[in-house]
Design goal:
single chain; about 70 residues; mainly alpha; Erythroid Transcription Factor GATA-1, Chain A; about 20% helix
Length: about 70
């Protein structure tokens, strides 16, 4: 099951979204390169995907639209 991350207002200076330590401007919104890389890994693995009920086509092509 995907991890649920609460949304924060942009004006709120919250901590790092991975470990909640204070943010560092070089790695904003993260505190370090390590946390930025962990977040990238989550994106690449699909941990942040939005579940849908759509069925994928067997050939991998998008369905043809009828106009």
């Amino acid at each position: 099951m995907a991890e649920v991350i609460p949304l924060r207002p942009k004006n709120q200076n919250a901590g790092c979204p991975i470990c909640e330590k204070p943010q560092i401007s070089d790695f904003s919104p993260f505190c370090s390169k390590r946390c930025a890389d962990l977040d990238l890994g989550k994106w690449l693995k699909g941990d942040y995907r939005i579940p849908t009920n759509e069925e994928a086509d067997m050939d991998g092509e998008p369905p043809e639209s009828e106009y």
